[in-house]
Amino acid sequence: MSEETSDIDDERWLIGAEKIADVYQGMVPAVRPGLMEFSDIMVRDLFGGIWTREQLDTGQRRLIVMGAIAAVGGPNTWKLQCKSALKRGELTEEQVREVLIQATPYVGYPRAAELVGATEEAISECRREAAEAEADAGDETG
């Protein structure tokens, strides 16, 4: 690999690390480069390349990802997407639930049923975290 290619890869990794922090609101840290090749590729190519393209915004990209997760399963990943969408203000609680309702006829009831609990956990955790942040802010001003 040439030094120029390495510099471009390093720059894309930095862009990707910034994007993953934004997309997941700090819930998914970028692993320091060079520790895990899988992580390097994900941060550099997925978040530094695809998620940063201008044709779709982050919320639109998240809906596509949520549809794919609903189709293949993955309650933990679904929950992360729900929490991130709520924290970023991309979707309301009602809309997060509606995404799953919309996906259900396409992915099947058994697959979607696995995600109902994860959806409600994400909503509950976001409410709790918001209440804690509000209480902390009140303590600072009071």
Please provide a written account of the structure:
The protein is an all-alpha fold and 142 residues long. The protein folds into 2 domains: 1-55, no CATH class; 57-142, no CATH class. It is 78% helix and 0% strand. α3 runs antiparallel to α4 (75-87). The longest helix has 33 residues, at 109-141. It is globular, with a radius of gyration of 17 Å.
For this entry, give a set of tags:
mainly alpha
Q: Structural class given helices, strands, pairing?
A: mainly alpha
Overall shape: it is globular
From N to C, what is the helix and strand string?
HHHHHH
Low-confidence stretches: none
Beta content: under 5%
Radius of gyration: 17 Å
Number of domains: 2
Helix content: over 70%
Gap between N and C termini: 57 Å
The biggest sheet amounts to: none
> What count of helical segments does DSSP give?
6
Overall pLDDT metric: 92
What is the β-strand count? 0
